[in-house]
Every structure is written in C-alpha cells, then in structure tokens.
C-alpha cells in the first residue's frame, strides 16, 4: 500500500494502478462502516484508493472541526489489512490552493435536512469531492447510505456535471445494538452511548408501523418524535419523513420515504436514516 501526501505524489503513484479504480473518500478515524466501502470497492475494482482528509470547508462555525477524532497510524494499518492500493492524506494547501475561490454547489437538494441545519456544509462536501475525483481520476466512488442526503447530492452533482464516474452507495453498518457506526460516536460518554440507540429505535418503530400498513407521513413523523422524546438524554434537532428523490417533506399518504433525523446527545450530534418502500 502506497501512502502519499502531495498532489504530485498522488498523480505519479496513480499511474501504476490498474483500472477500474475505486475511490473511498473519508475523514479518517475509520470504523467498519468505512471499511465496508473499501471491501465493496475491492470486490468491484482492480485497484482501490482511499483519501483521508478532515475537510474544513464542510464544518460550520462552532462545529467540531478541531475536536474531530484523528488516528492516522491506526487508519493506515486498517487500510493496509484491507488490501488498499493507494492512500492520499492531502495537506490543506494541496486541496485548497492559496486564494482559491471556486466552489461546486448543488442548489436544490442541499436546501433541506442536513443542508438546512448546516449552512454551507454541502458546498464544502461537493467541492472537496470534486477535487478528490479530479485528483484521483477515479472510475468509481463509494459512499455510505449513512449520509443519505450526501449520497443523493453527489449523485446529482455527477449527473449535472457529466462526470464519468459511477457512484456506488453502500448500506449503513451498525453496532450490535443498532447504533449506526460513526467517527463521532467516540464523543459519547457511557450514558450517552447507551441512550444513542434511541435513533435506531425511533426509525425501527416507524418502519414497523409502515410495514403494518401505516402510510400517513405525519403519524410516522410524530411516532419517531415520541420515541426520541422518551429518552431524557436525547434532544431532537429534526425528524423527517421525506420524498426519497427530492427530499421534500412528505404530507399525507406515502408509498416510499426517507426517514431521517439529527439528534443531540449532550454536545454530540448524531444522524441516522432508513428508507421505506424501497427494496
Ligand atoms: P466520513 O469519514 O464520516 O466522511 O465518512 C466517509 C464515508 O463513509 C461516507 O461515504 C459515509 O457515508 C461512509 N460511512 C460512514 N459511516 C458509515 C456507516 N456506519 N455505514 C456505512 N457507511 C458509512
């Protein structure tokens, strides 16, 4: 496994790789969720690249950019074990040249849910992902359904900008009790960790109601809210039942929906989601 730091090093290392190349963009502090993307890329591609970069432009003011957990030696060990070919750990300067002033913006899909709560977040994501795509000149890129809106936004961007890249979205990997794996779970103290299961419970409860015939978006939304509000350590930021394509909030009867939520446990903001009516 080759580990490179500069863009020049990346470009020359890339020329040794077989096609198709699969890229897994990450912010590091890797867990089984990230590794599931790597494993999928290994199955489908002749070579696999991973980027590890805590992208400052996708963090808002007062968010956890400085505190974001990092452990590069461990990350590299895990990637080596997975048989990754190339890892890029770029410097800020390589990704954002001095005086850089170019942004990639997906206009509509980013107005809701995470985009509404985290202004500028998706502008940072789409810009950095475009740069990673350009740097790696990848054939495929792997993203997690854990960040459902991010996956949709990137698929939209790739389509809109005619990028010759196939986007593969992989299922959410969960801890044994159902908590979606996240680098941010490391922030939770033991009581918060125990309480964090409430996101999965709320989604599971709504999914069960849907399975049993409940089709009213408002009822499903309120049922998720009630489950979360039952957990004293949890504070809801939003709970959504949305159209899975447009992300518009659903009203009345639904056949398909993206259930999603952002919930605080103390200062830690967790997100989770589940698709209804889609195999
Ligand atoms: P991050 O390092 O948080 O930027 O995540 C990098 C990639 O891993 C993104 O495409 C995430 O959606 C994906 N990812 C993070 N957590 C999970 C998970 N629990 N299951 C599947 N994919 C995940």
Topology:
Layout: E1 2-4, H1 7-14, E2 21-26, H2 32-44, E3 47-52, H3 72-82, E4 86-88, H4 92-95, H5 113-117, H6 121-136, E5 140-144, H7 148-160, E6 166-170, H8 190-195, H9 198-211, H10 217-229, E7 234-242, E8 257-265, E9 268-276
Helix pairs in contact: 6-7, 9-10
Adenosine monophosphate (AMP) binds at residues 26-27, 33-34, 36-37, 143-144, 146-147, 170, 172-173, 180-183.
**Euclidean distance between termini CA atoms:** 36 Å
Largest sheet: 6 strands, parallel
CATH architecture of the largest domain: 3-Layer(aba) Sandwich
How many independent structural domains? 2
- The CATH topology assignment of the largest domain is Rossmann fold
- Reading the helices and strands in chain order gives EHEHEHEHHHEHEHHHEEE
For CATH, the homologous superfamily of the largest domain is named as HUPs
Number of helices: 10
Overall morphology? globular
Helix proportion: 25-40%
Please list the strands of the largest sheet in the order they lie side by side: 1-4-3-2-5-6
Number of strands: 9
Structural class: alpha/beta
Nutshell version of this structure?
With 279 residues, the protein is of the alpha/beta class.
Supply database-style keywords:
single chain, 279 residues, alpha/beta, Rossmann fold, Pantoate--beta-alanine Ligase, Chain: A,domain 2, six-stranded parallel β-sheet, three-stranded antiparallel β-sheet, 10 helices, 9 strands, globular, binds adenosine monophosphate
């Amino acid at each position: 496994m080759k580990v490179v730091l500069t863009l020049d090093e990346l470009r020359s290392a890339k020329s040794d790789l077989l096609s198709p190349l699969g890229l897994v963009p990450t912010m590091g502090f890797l867990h089984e969720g990230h590794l599931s993307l790597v494993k999928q890329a290994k199955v489908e591609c002749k070579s696999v690249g991973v980027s590890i970069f805590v992208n400052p432009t996708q963090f808002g003011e007062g968010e956890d950019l400085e505190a974001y957990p990092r452990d590069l030696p461990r990350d590299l060990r895990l990637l080596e074990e997975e048989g990754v070919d190339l890892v890029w750990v770029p410097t800020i300067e390589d990704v954002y040249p001095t005086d850089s002033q170019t942004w990639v913006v997906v206009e509509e899909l980013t107005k809701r849910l995470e985009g509404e709560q985290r202004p500028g977040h998706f502008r940072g994501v789409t810009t950095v992902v475009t740069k990673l795509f350009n740097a790696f000149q990848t054939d495929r890129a792997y993203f997690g359904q854990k960040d459902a809106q991010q996956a949709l936004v990137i698929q939209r961007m790739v389509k809109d900008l005619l990028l010759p890249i196939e986007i593969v979205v992989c299922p959410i990997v969960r801890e044994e009790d159902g908590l979606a794996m996240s680098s941010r779970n490391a922030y939770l103290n033991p009581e918060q960790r125990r309480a964090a299961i409430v996101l999965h419970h709320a989604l599971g409860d709504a999914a069960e109601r849907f399975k049993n015939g409940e089709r009213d978006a408002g009822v499903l939304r309120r049922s998720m809210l009630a489950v979360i509000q039952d957990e004293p350590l949890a504070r809801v930021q939003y709970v959504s039942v949305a159209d899975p394509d447009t992300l518009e909030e659903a009203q009345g009867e639904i056949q398909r929906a993206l259930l999603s939520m952002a919930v605080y446990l103390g200062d830690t903001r967790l997100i989770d989601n589940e698709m209804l009516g889609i195999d």
